[in-house]
Amino acid sequence: MSATDGVFARGLAEAAGAELLALRESMGFDDPAKLRAEGDRRAHELIMAELARSRPGDAVLSEEGSGEQGRTGTSRRSAERVWIVDPLDGTREFGEAGNSDWAVHIALWERGSGLTEGAVALPAKGYTLATDEPPTYPELGSQAGPRIAVSRTRPPAFMADLAAAVGGSLVPMGSAGAKAAAVVTGTVDAYVHAGGQHEWDSAAPVAVAWSAGLHASRINGVALEYNASDPKLPDLVVCRAELAQVLLAELARLL
Question: DSSP strand E in the chain: where?
Answer without folding.
Answer: 59-62, 81-89, 103-110, 114-122, 127-130, 147-151, 169-173, 190-193, 215-217, 236-239
